Amino acid sequence: MQRAFGSLLALLALTGCGDDDIPVIFPDGGLDAASSDAASFDAASFDAGSNPADAGGADGGAERDAGPPGAVSGVVTFERRVLTGRGLEAPAPETLAGVEVILIDGATQLGSAVTNGDGSYDFDVEPAGGARVRVLASGRGIAVTDFRDNVYAFEVDVVDGRADVHVDIEEMSGALAIHETMNEGLVFAQEAFDRADAFPELQVYWERGRTTPGGTSYAAGDELWILGGPSDTDEFDTPVLLHELGHYL
Predict the structure, then answer these.
(1) Section 146-167 average pLDDT
(2) Which of 108, 202, 223, 235 sees the fewest Cβ atoms within 10 Å?
């Protein structure tokens, strides 16, 4: 599997294009991401968590990034449509590694962690009532944003020390699918290139239902622009995503 993934990444980097503090955005059901209100962070200076150099293997980070098992824990999952020779399969849940999780109590941020290879996280903190967990489409040097630099975010309440987060298609799970593909690609490249230095921070622009300014998925320096529709959409198209990541590399 690792060899096949690496071969695909190398091939896509060489072939031509076919058609070729963080602001956060809380997608609301099926609404287009651009119509949602953003919070008050600045994408230009985002700290997207640890770099893939510390990711712990090509499986997306099997090692534990959070602290020891604590008072608040959970698992992050999302819906992905897997691309096969028959096209995109029906949505199915997957665990999500390598994204940032923030524990919030009222207006206070109590801590942050990065999900492990099995999508789990935990905080050795016991918050008061009303605590929430926020999952960002960022982490390990990658941020997935809308066209206005707002990082996608998903939030749930903590109940009895537990906060499992599941994001479905209508809630913009495509942003998390993009992050997962980029994370896995960078982890593999880090090892394959035997690279000690961190990759530059990567920002990926995507909005469901919208085309990009260039009319296709493309790379522009340390930024990637990914089609979200309406006539063509690439958030679940792994070959296209790895192709653009190859240009960035």
Answers:
(1) 95
(2) 108
Nearest CA to 135 among 186, 106, 95? 95
User: pTM of the prediction?
Assistant: 0.77
Coil, helix or strand for 158? Answer: coil
Residue 70 has pLDDT above 80, yes or no: no
What is the rounded CA–CA span in Å between residue 154 and residue 132?
A: 10
For residue 177, which phi and psi values (nearest 5 degrees)?
Answer: -65, -40
What backbone torsions phi and psi does residue 181 show, to the nearest 5 degrees? -65, -45
Q: How far is CA 190 from CA 12, 143, 221, in A?
A: 17, 18, 18
- What is the largest distance, in Å, between two alpha-carbon atoms of the chain? 54
Amino acid identity, residue 134? R
Distance between CA atoms of residues 145 and 81, nearest Å: 20
pLDDT, position 24: 62
CB-count exposure of residue 157 (10 Å: 0-12, 13-18, 19+): exposed
Rounded to whole angstroms, how far apart are CA atoms 65 and 87? 35
- Say if residues 233 and 241 touch (Cβ distance below 8 Å): no
